[in-house]
Amino acid sequence: MSSNIKVGFVQSNPEFGAVKTNRIHTQKLWGEHKADLLVLPELFNTGYQFKSPEEARKLSEPIPDGPTTRFLIDWSRNSGMTIVAGLAEREGEILYNSAVIVSPKGYIGKFRKAHIFDTETDFFQPGDLPFTVFDAGFAKIGIMICFDWRFPETARTLALQGADIIAHPANLVLPHCPQAMITRCLENRVYAVTADRVGTEQRIPGEALKFIGQSQGVDPDGTVLVRASEDREEAQVVEIDLEKARNKRINGHNDLFADRREDLYRTSGKG
To answer: N or C, which end of the chain has less CB nearby within 10 Å?
Structure first.
C-alpha cells in the first residue's frame, strides 16, 4: 500500500443555528475535491456563540445516533473519504464540544475537547475521553479540538500513540495557533490538518468574536504545505507521504522519541 495520501479541509462561515443548511453548505464548499481524509471545523454545523445552556442543548446531538453523524457517514460512504468534524454532543444531561471520525465503513469514534476555552465553560464539560489514535486503515489519526493546541502534551500524547496525522477542528480567535502548529509538528514529527472557520459572530452585545481562518496542513518538518485565507470560505487538498511521519530520526545520531529523557522530565512540576 502506498504511503502517499491526500488530506483536505473545508474552511467555512456557518450560519448560527442553521444545522441542516450548514451541513449542506459545507458539502457544497468541498464540491468535487477528492481526498482520503477530510477535516471540518469545530462546531461546523451550529456556529459557536451560544447565548444560553438551553440553546446549546437544543442544538446538540447524540453521537453516533444523531442526524449530523448520520449525514457524515452517508457523505463518507458516497465519497470514499474518512471525515473528522466538530459538533456539540449531548450525552444525557451533559454537553461536550466533540469531534466525530467516520469512514466509508461507518462510525469509527469520537473525541471530546479536553481544554475548554473561555465562555465555552458555560455550556460544555471538559472532555472525559482519553486522547486516542484512530486506525482509519490507510493512516493512524489523532484528534484534538481548537484550544487543545495550546497544551503541548496533547499532540505529544497522540504522537507517542503512533499518530501519523493530527486532525484539528477549530474555531480560532487567538492569533497564535497557525504558527504554533508548526512547532507541534516539529516536536513530534507528525502531520497536522487544522480546519478553522471565518467570519464574525456577535450574538451577545459587546462580545464580538472574529475567527481568523488560516486553515492549514503542516508536515513533520514544520513546512506549511497549504494555508487558507483569513477571511474566505474555501476548500484545499494536499498530498502527503505518511512515511515522513513514521520516521522519527532527525539525523544519523538522533531519534526524536528514542532520545527523550524520561528519567529527567517532571511533568507534574515537582522536583
So the answer is: C
